[in-house]
């Protein structure tokens, strides 16, 4: 057991190193060439006459921080979703979070002329939360309470409903499409730390709480009857996990838009290293999600310079084939 824990701890250390490397790459790679020395000097002795220092502090640092935080949040939310629904293909979008966020943003832009990023962020978070609450409520109706099948069906129905409403509104007002294109594709370009700060306390609290319930989640995935027999308050734990998912995924969507596949792909990669022990799987997922989204942002800005590929497109390129692989393999354990 000690050897196994030492190995897992070593992999965790490697993931931390990988995150540091991805973060450093995010600071130096881009349309404006910047050396590691210049990036370091922008923090140690900032010079507002230096173009490189301004680029690092005003653009690349916020992008790296936001990509790391939201990547970790989406990955942990996905791991909790798969445990909650006992469905290996589950991800935050199954709660209708992405679609609910986009729908409220479209409503705000088209009917209320909302334009500021902060107001759009508020609308996105509210829509994500409302969609998740509706799905959880519908999935809990009935004699058996919340079941994997019911919540999957409820999530699919609500997602399709919000998506059809969104498309209908955009067809009536094509001009609004340009204003919400960012939310449809997902991106960290143009994001600032001021946009993340209002949500950061919620994200940090939700991440910390998620890491602390690993043992309880281990018991939950063995089955409701066994968990109840061991004295666990199953309904309360499921509700708490739902709240954590809303805060983690809802906050991420509010900041960077609809970025898919992180919540689906990362938990499976984490499971490959950590097994099904959520005490290790959740921190692995957080680090892997941060590394993947930060690295995806670096590739997105280099691929077709001087323009950028939306980061949501990059994650889809990575996650799409992985989704097909999981579906064909028929993974059943979470």
From TrEMBL:
GO CC annotation: plasma membrane
Compartments where located: Cell membrane
SUPFAM superfamilies tied to this protein: ABC transporter involved in vitamin B12 uptake, BtuC
Ranges annotated as spanning the membrane: 64-84, 96-114, 120-139, 151-172, 199-221, 242-269, 281-304, 311-328
Key word Nucleus present: no
Topological relation to the membrane, as annotated: Multi-pass membrane protein
Domain of life: Bacteria
Gene Ontology BP annotations: siderophore-iron import into cell
Gene3D superfamilies in the record: ABC transporter involved in vitamin B12 uptake, BtuC
Pfam family name, one: FecCD
Statement: the UniProt record of this protein carries the keyword Magnesium: no
CDD domains linked to this entry: TM_ABC_iron-siderophores_like
Assigned keywords, A-Z: Cell membrane, Membrane, Transmembrane, Transmembrane helix, Transport
GO terms assigned for molecular function: transmembrane transporter activity
Similarity remark: Belongs to the binding-protein-dependent transport system permease family. FecCD subfamily.
Name of this protein: Iron complex transport system permease protein
């Amino acid at each position: 057991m000690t050897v196994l824990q030492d190995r897992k701890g070593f992999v965790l250390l490697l993931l931390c190193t990988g995150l540091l490397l991805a973060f450093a790459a995010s600071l130096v790679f881009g349309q404006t060439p910047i050396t590691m020395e210049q990036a370091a000097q922008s923090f140690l002795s900032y010079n507002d006459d230096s173009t490189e220092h301004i680029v690092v502090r005003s653009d690349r640092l916020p992008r790296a921080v936001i990509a790391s935080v939201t990547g970790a949040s989406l990955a942990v939310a996905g791991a909790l979703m798969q445990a909650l629904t006992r469905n290996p293909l589950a991800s935050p979008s199954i709660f209708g979070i992405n679609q609910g966020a986009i729908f409220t943003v479209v409503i705000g832009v088209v009917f209320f002329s909302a334009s500021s990023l902060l107001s759009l962020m508020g609308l996105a978070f509210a829509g994500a939360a409302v969609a998740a609450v509706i799905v959880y409520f519908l999935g809990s109706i009935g004699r058996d309470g919340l079941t994997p099948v019911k919540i999957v069906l409820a999530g699919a129905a609500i997602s399709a409903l919000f998506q059809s409403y969104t498309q209908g509104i955009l067809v009536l007002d094509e001009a609004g499409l340009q204003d919400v294109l960012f939310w449809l594709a997902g991106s960290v370009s143009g994001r600032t730390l001021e946009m993340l700060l209002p949500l950061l306390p919620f994200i940090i609290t939700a991440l910390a709480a998620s890491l602390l319930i690993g043992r309880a989640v281990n018991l939950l995935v063995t089955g409701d009857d066994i968990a109840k027999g061991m004295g666990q308050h199953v309904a309360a734990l499921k509700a708490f996990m739902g709240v954590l998912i809303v805060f983690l995924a809802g906050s991420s969507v509010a900041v960077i838009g609809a970025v898919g596949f992180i919540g689906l792909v990362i938990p499976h990669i984490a499971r490959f290293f950590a097994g099904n022990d959520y005490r290790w799987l959740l921190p692995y997922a957080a680090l892997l999600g941060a590394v993947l989204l930060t690295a995806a942002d670096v590739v997105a800005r280099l691929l077709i310079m001087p323009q950028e590929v939306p980061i949501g497109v990059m994650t889809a390129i990575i996650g799409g084939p992985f989704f097909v692989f999981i579906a064909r393999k028929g993974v059943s354990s979470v």
